[in-house]
Amino acid sequence: MATPLEAIGTKIESEDTYGLETEDLVELYRTMYTSRRIDDREMHMKRQQKIFFQISGAGHEAINVAAGRAMKPGYDWLFPYYRDRALCLQLGVTPLEMFLQAVGAGDDPASGGREMPAHFGHPTLRIPTSSSPVGSQYLPAVGCAEAVARAAKIGVEADEEGADWHDDEVVVVSGGEGSTSEGEFWEALNTACNLKLPVIFLIEDNGYAISVPIEVQTAGGSISKLVSGYPDLLLREVDGTNPLESYRVMREAVAHCRERKGPALVHAHVIRPYSHSMSDNEELYKTEAERDEEAARDPIPNFAEYLVRQGHASEEELEALREEVDGQVAEAADEATGHEQPGPETVYFHMVSDRVDPRSDDFATEPELEGNETTMVDLLNMCLRDEMERDPRIVVFGEDVADASREEVLDEVKGKGGVFKVTAGLQRQFGGDRVFNSPLAEANIVGRAVGMALRGLRPVAEIQFVDYIWPAYNQIRSELATMRWRSNGHYSAPAVIRATYGGYLGGGAMYHSQSSSSLFTHIPGLHVVCPSNALDANGLLRTALRCEDPVLFFEHKHLYRQTYNKSAYPGPDFMIPFGRARVVEEGSDLTVVTYGALVERTRKAMRKLEKEGNPVSVELLDLRTLNPLDMDAIERSVKRTNKVLIAYEDPGSWGWGAEISARIADRVFEWLDGPVRRVTGKDAFVGYAPRLEEAILPQVEDLAEGIAELHRY
Ligand SMILES: Cc1ncc(C[n+]2csc(CCOP(=O)(O)OP(=O)(O)O)c2C)c(N)n1
Ligand SMILES: [Mg+2]
User: Is 681 in a helix, a strand, or coil?
Assistant: First the structure.
């Protein structure tokens, strides 16, 4: 149960200082005051157009410094949000570093000028770059704590890069009360409690999310009441404008987590005296009386008054401290304005790893084939086995991927191992700490993968069907793919997300048959892989696991067990570089550019035309990876054949083929002897009735017709 909040006072009455000496108290005040003055200064700079956005931590300073004081800087991890200026200062981020972000300087250590002010991050203080989507920090924070818990059980060596874990470290993740309305908050809390992870959820409740008051956000108006049934969750409610009471509960929460008793949630009531941001004016929705009431709870004057009243400092001493801080803040602001913004040449810096290039020849190894031919499912499974043996950091999880979560039944049952069996037997071989089921929550799966990858594990997360990836899209788009770029190369999340996709199985209908590749190829920083056969699947998955970037690895369900795409096992080191198309068949009349299930369908279309006495010499290109794209192979082929048809399963419009078509027009227009044609899925969802599915997805006949028509042109 939450400790009841006895009083939210305007006066700090705490008798006990909870072990903090006079010097500590004055230092806390200094940090709180510094934080407020940075906000004031930034607001001034915004009006002068020296910075381009401002959002303040005003009113949150007391709980912030208390949290920072309870943590071990550079040892514990913080996933902050934009109100956590004083918390970051307390952990050691400097005013200059904050101003560097505000002016958008290339030297900004948090993001190199890429993110807004107050998007805190630090290369060495264990503050990974923060993003803007409200609530998206919770799941990576849980993954971060989980990585340490798993590493200990798995026996991963602590000297791996990023694997600098300590078995008593804690993770603090913060957010406003509004952020607790996001599903990701609940998914994170659920797993933190379920796995008893050392995560402190610090909820800074200022009563508003921009203009929307608490009673609209939260049933019953109190997040701590709402979560009171979560097991092993230490729950504390506190006046977050009182630094001493805040310190008391934060210290307790940190101790609870250090001792591995489970997670904690601290519900801190704070104020927000400076409107939401400089783009907001709270007078539009808060009455004067309400604002006066908040002003009376302002932690900065109230703590100063307390320090004087209790004899920790005199008025004059505090005045001198304030003058000193004002000078330091002004100096830092002036210094920051002298720093340059990043140059245009830096745009692509740290989009992907600059150390390991999965397109390079390092990833081009020859297969050493052995044994009988087998299916794509088997060769994916064998790749995972090989790589898990080679790299102890690899963990595999998702829905139904384990053989059996209840390990005691494993002697009696065969085991599930994935709804398509790609992960069959992995739990049996590598144990339940490395191969495990997740809750049925896709954002949870990807968000935790982000946090684990950040800490040096190599997560392989499975999304059962791409049709259900959408709850995870925010994590993929906003966290996974952006981590390296937005931290200017200081943090990265090299995780592999495997997802099944595609139609042609019959009866899958609209939620088990879609392809959605272009919605992912549109995300910078994310590799997108789509193998068409068993051998490629094996080699490309190995590359995905050995590169240092996030990879979305698409597996076509229809191709999993086709006999025509089987291969013998290519050995434990077989890799295919990304961005290298395969010429499936050479030809001279026209080029077909495709991937996935349409590779075989195009071959069938070619054979059909031959049988009908209307042969076309087609050069068939299987792209294998959509991002990076082998534009050179396309260009080379089109220059020879002078005609090109692009075939894909997705709805045609706004799709992936339109981009390739545009690039062809751009780069080899002069070589074209005909229009760039597309054979695609209809602009509809895949229907259940087989006749409907057949009409919606591109068939052999459609491809044959398209090829013949373009040939005649
Ligand atoms: C997912 C998402 N939706 C909307 C926004 C725009 N937005 C930014 S902050 C905010 C309010 C957040 O309120 P709360 O969580 O209570 O934090 P506070 O700002 O009050 O500290 C909104 C709606 C956003 N950044 N992300
Ligand atoms: Mg709020």
Answer: strand
Ligand 1 pocket mutation pick from 134, 270, 278 by most atoms within 8 angstroms of CB = 134
Q: Tokens 């025509």 map to which residue?
A: 564
Q: Give yes or no: residues 178 and 74 share one domain.
A: yes
pLDDT at 11: 86
Domain assignment of residue 172, yes or no: yes
Measured CA distances, 713 to 371, 594, 707, 709 (Å): 47, 21, 10, 6
Residue 384: count other Cβ atoms within 10 Å of its Cβ.
27
Amino acid at 635: E
Question: What is the rounded CA–CA span in Å between residue 358 and residue 452?
Answer: 21
More confident residue, 479 or 161: 479
Structure tokens at 503: 């139609």
Residues 611 and 539 both lie in one domain: no
Q: Is residue 346 part of a domain?
A: no
Pairing verdict, β 582-585 and 567-569: unpaired
Of 104, 43, 39, the closest CA to residue 339 belongs to: 104
**Per the domain annotation, does 617 fall within a domain?**
yes
What value, to the nearest 5°, has the Cα angle with vertex 414 and ends 412 and 417? 135
Task: Say if residue 632 is in the same domain as residue 564.
Answer: no
CA angle 4/8/13 to nearest 5° reads 105
Q: Residue 417 maps to which CATH number?
A: 3.40.50.970
- Nearest ligand to the CA of 134 is 1
Taking the C-alpha atoms of residue 459 and residue 449, their distance in angstroms, rounded to an integer, is 6
Last residue within a domain, chosen from 569, 596, 622: 569
Residues 491-498, mean pLDDT to the nearest whole number: 97
Same domain, 509 and 588: no
Neighbours of 392 (CB within 10 A): 17
The share of the chain scoring above pLDDT 70, in percent, equals: 98
| C-alpha–C-alpha distance, residues 354 and 293, integer Å | 53
Indicate if 374 and 428 belong to the same structural domain.
Answer: yes
Backbone angles phi, psi at 486, to 5 degrees: -75, -20
Burial of 543 (0-12, 13-18, 19+ CB in 10 A): buried
Q: Which residues constitute the domain of residue 300? A: 23-337
Instruction: Give the tens place of pLDDT for each residue, 435-457.
Output: 999 999 999 999 999 999 999 99
Over range 366-389, report the average pLDDT: 98
Q: Which atom of ligand 1 is nearest to the CA of 210?
A: 11
β-strand pairing of 551-556 with 527-529: parallel
Q: What pLDDT is attached to residue 1?
A: 42
Percent of the chain's residues with pLDDT above 90: 96
Asked if the structure places residue 350 within a domain, the reply is: no
Helix axis angle, 138-154 to 442-454, nearest 10°: 60
Based on its alpha-carbon atoms, the radius of gyration of the chain, rounded to whole angstroms, reads 29
Q: What is the pLDDT of residues 570-593, one digit of tens each?
A: 999 999 999 999 999 999 999 999
Between CA 60 and CA 90 the distance in angstroms is 13
Same domain, 520 and 594: no
The verdict on whether 522 is a catalytic residue reads no
Element (H, E) at 634: helix 631-641
The residue whose C-alpha atom lies closest to atom 18 belonging to ligand 1 is 176
For 15, other C-beta atoms within 10 Å of its C-beta total 6
Q: Which residues' Cβ are closer than 6 Å to ligand 1?
A: 83, 132-134, 175-179, 204, 206, 208-210, 272, 276
Q: What is the DSSP string of 584-608?
A: EE--SSEEEEE-TTHHHHHHHHHHH
Kindly report the CATH number assigned to the domain that includes residue 658.
3.40.50.920
